[in-house]
Structure formats: structure tokens, C-alpha cells
# Entry
Amino acid sequence: MKPSILAVALFCVVLFNGDRPVSGAAASTDATSCNSRKKNSPQLVKIPRLKNTWQIQRKCKFPSAKHVGFAIDVFYKKWLRQFGDKDKKVLSTLNNMMIEWGEKPKAITGGAFDVNGDPISGTARGLTLMPGYIWIWENRYQRIAATALIHELVHAALWSQQGYHGDPDHEGDEFKGWTAKHTKFIREVNTLLANTDI
Ligand SMILES: [Zn+2]
# Structure
């Protein structure tokens, strides 16, 4: 067999393996399952429904990758209806994302603003480090609706659409993008998630 044909064949096998539907029997070893034997060490868990989106979590109890996938799905459907997604940039970001969950809030070292655009200090519940990398504090409620996930996804979506920033000062005047509609949107999505106990 010619080397080039072999290479193509291998490439296809890799692709097809990656796209194989998840079977219940293999659940303990597939990428979308959290391995509880790893106890408190960080592990990468694939988010179902999305192409190449993963989360880094420490314990398996919260949040489940399935619920995160559901929350992102709800986020995108509503975003599409309300704000649109020309060129599918938001969809592409959501499909290629790393979500890191943290046990403790992160100390703010500068450059953080409240919803009105006023600088704040203290600790952060979530951070969008770049459109495809967000950090979220788990907090104690064991509910995605109580975390900053949806808030950070708005930053990530705006960043994908604008290209330069995710509007760190929210409704403030220095950066453009975030409006009162985005603040309301977060409330609505989180209410929806809370109503389904997620
Ligand atoms: Zn923010």
C-alpha cells in the first residue's frame, strides 16, 4: 500500500472513532464521564453535544458535563433568537471551548468591572480569559444557574463577534458591546436553568 493511502486511511479511522456515538456500556471510560476514582485531582471531561469543548473539574459531583452541555445549548438557542450569529462565530467558539471550574473565587488583580462599568476589587466568580477559555467558580449551591457560567458565555460570545474584547466593563461606556439586554438575557437563561434544577 502506498504511504499516502495509509495516511488517509489512518486519518479517517481517527475521525470516525472521534465521532462515534457514546454508548451506555462504555460510559465509565468515555471522555464525557468524570472518573470518581481520581478523587480531587483535576481532570478533563468532554462536554456532550459540542464538537471540541471540554471542562476541567476536580470532583465529579458538580457540575456534570451533561448539564453544562444543556446549559450551553439553551444559551445558544436563545442568543441566536435575540442577538443573531452572523458567520456562526459564536457557535464556533462554543464548540471549541475550555471551561475550567475552580473551588475558590479568584482574587482580582485589576481590570475587573461591575455591571455598570465601575472598577471592582475583591474576588471574581468567573473570568473570560479569551473567547475560548473561561474560568468559573463552582460555589456551594451545586447549580449551574447560581454560577457565572452564562455571564462568562456572554463575554465569550461578544468577544467572538467583536474580535478584540468581550466588553469587560459590561454596561459601562469604555468598551462597547454589552447592553442592558445582555444583562436581562443572563437573568432569563439562569431562571430557565434554575426551573429545570440545573
Ligand atoms: Zn463580566
The chain has one domain: 34-195. Residues 34-195 form one domain.
